[in-house]
Specification:
elongated, Four Helix Bundle (Hemerythrin (Met), subunit A)
Length: 154
């Protein structure tokens, strides 16, 4: 295994689930762009390979959705992923670059949205570590802001 492959493997093995999600979006975007370039250069092999690899990632996104937890959002994402797969299939059949460009735009927008969500989540985690613990009442509920804890020992 060469140094670059080893580096990539280490990146994936040490990445958080959120980072892996973003890496997969980057891969799907890259493969879709390769397909576009292949189509522009009449390179059918590059076009088909890019479409196939992009479809594999998008299919995995769809298969990994948890509809019980995700509810409506998971349903909407599943419909969007299905649409992208259909567009990739039609682009492959009809050699339609505009369909590839549409999928690239959707992937880029989704990647940006997920990137913002990951960044927000990381910031919230960092802030939570820096903030003092909120006192709790005996019931386990958070104490009101005016609550002053004291104890009488006797």
């Amino acid at each position: 295994m060469n140094a670059y492959n080893q580096y990539q493997e280490n990146q994936v093995l040490s990445a958080s689930p959120e980072q892996i999600l973003l890496m997969l979006y980057d891969g799907a975007i890259r493969f879709t762009r390769q397909a576009i370039t292949g189509m522009e250069n009449n390179n059918l092999s590059q076009t088909h390979r890019g479409i196939k690899n992009s479809m594999a990632i998008i299919t995995e996104f769809s298969n990994s959705l948890n509809h019980e937890i995700g509810g409506r959002i998971a349903e909407d994402l599943a419909a969007l992923y299905d649409y992208m797969i259909r567009e990739l299939l039609m682009a492959n059949l009809k050699m339609d670059k505009t369909k590839l460009q549409g999928v690239e735009k959707l992937l880029t927008d989704l990647r940006a949205t997920w990137g913002e969500a990951v960044e927000t989540n990381n910031m919230e985690k960092t802030l939570a570590k820096k903030l003092p613990a909120v006192p709790k009442l005996a019931s386990g509920a958070p104490a009101p802001n005016t609550y002053v804890h004291f104890s009488i020992s006797g």
